[in-house]
């Protein structure tokens, strides 16, 4: 899955709309301490559906919204868009009718997050699956945080296995299996209820 552009508006330190063009191959981000390099990586995770505020180095999800500076007031929303080249149709069914996909997430104070794919409202779960199936996503081992290598070395074997599974792109399958099991359990409970009703009527 080739990312071609990242756009941030009101996201953490990126108060003004900022475009980052992403070419094929390796992309390096360099700059002085505190200039926002990690914020860029977090924007990528966030637009892919990250739900843990802690993973965004915040106490709550709204902490990603520009909080204001001496000369600029705080913003009311943050938005990140990621443009994906989909010419080889690697996206899952339902997202494959276009050569490019633009995934947008916006969070508004006191309202929460909303996602769009090519301007169409989309569920968070579908955006998360879109990336999980392509072996990337908010928890992808391809996005390496500071300190993550040391964490991996000290991780339990089960957690290391999860990294390999995410890299193999089967994270989405586990999620679907989990959802299917929940549906199965609720259907079994409904069947028991039907049996009870039938017994009462007999
Ligand atoms: P280092 O090289 O030290 O790791 P970095 O380039 O990765 O730094 P970041 O950690 O991405 O920098 O950015 C930190 C900056 O982002 C800080 O100046 C911090 O004040 C600013 N920042 C973080 N969240 C917000 C927010 N919600 N509103 C405004 N600024 C924010």
UniProtKB/TrEMBL annotation:
ATP binds at residues 32-39. It is found in: Cytoplasm. It comes from the Bacteria. Belongs to the SMC family. Homodimer. Required for chromosome condensation and partitioning. Contains large globular domains required for ATP hydrolysis at each terminus and a third globular domain forming a flexible hinge near the middle of the molecule. These domains are separated by coiled-coil structures. This is Chromosome partition protein Smc. The lineage of its organism: Bacteria, Pseudomonadati, Pseudomonadota, Alphaproteobacteria, Rhodobacterales.
